[in-house]
């Protein structure tokens, strides 16, 4: 969770340890990270480095693998754009800042598909899709998408 590598802890936050395998590339870049429902850590780095998952065992016993299959911008998971649904069966991410919209995974970030039905397209963006800034979910399971242009959209059914 830093520019140079990820760290983990096993003692409630007293001692932090760098992942033994480091990160899958060298260089300082901003990143977004979150835990998938199966406990794998997902990291997405700016600068074209991609989106990677660490697991399936927790550190120090896991490994890094790519988990960006289906994302239009493989390094574009927004910090404000990660949601796990209430039943922990779906992940949603905003392929942020590029106008690629929202993507959904039902297999812990291994594959992604678009989830943009009802969102407006913006042909001036890199992907020509919805220019989503952030997503969130309420306690009833409705997903909300906040666009860069200001409007907020809500799914018609809980996810």
Descriptive report:
The chain is built from no helices and 13 strands. The protein is globular. The two termini are 28 Å apart. The protein has one domain (7-154): Methylamine Dehydrogenase, Chain H, CATH 2.130.10. The model has no long low-confidence stretch (mean pLDDT 83). A hairpin with a 6-residue loop joins strand 7 (77-84) and strand 8. By secondary structure, it is mainly β. The protein is 0% helix and 36% strand. The strands form four sheets. Strands 3-4-5-6 form a four-stranded antiparallel β-sheet, with no helix packed on it. Strands 7-8-9-10 form a four-stranded antiparallel β-sheet, with no helix packed on it. Strands 11-12-13 form a three-stranded antiparallel β-sheet, with no helix packed on it.
Give a topology summary:
Blueprint: E1 7-8, E2 17-18, E3 31-35, E4 41-45, E5 50-55, E6 63-66, E7 77-84, E8 91-95, E9 102-105, E10 113-114, E11 132-137, E12 143-147, E13 152-154
Antiparallel strand pairs: 1-2, 3-4, 4-5, 5-6, 7-8, 8-9, 9-10, 11-12, 12-13
């Amino acid at each position: 969770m830093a520019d140079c590598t990820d760290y983990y802890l096993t003692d409630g936050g007293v001692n932090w340890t760098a992942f033994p395998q480091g990160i899958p590339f060298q260089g300082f870049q901003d990143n977004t990270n979150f835990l998938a429902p199966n406990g794998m850590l997902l990291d997405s780095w700016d600068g074209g480095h991609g989106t990677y998952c660490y697991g399936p065992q927790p550190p120090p016993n896991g490994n890094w693998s790519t988990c960006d299959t289906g994302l239009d911008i493989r390094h574009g998971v927004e910090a404000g754009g990660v949601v796990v649904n209430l039943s922990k069966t779906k992940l949603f991410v905003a392929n942020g800042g590029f106008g690629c919209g929202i993507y959904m995974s039902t297999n812990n970030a291994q594959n992604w598909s678009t989830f943009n039905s009802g969102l407006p397209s913006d042909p001036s963006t890199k992907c020509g899709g919805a220019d989503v800034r952030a997503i969130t979910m309420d306690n009833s399971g409705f997903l909300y998408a906040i666009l860069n242009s200001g409007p907020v959209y809500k799914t018609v059914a809980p996810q």
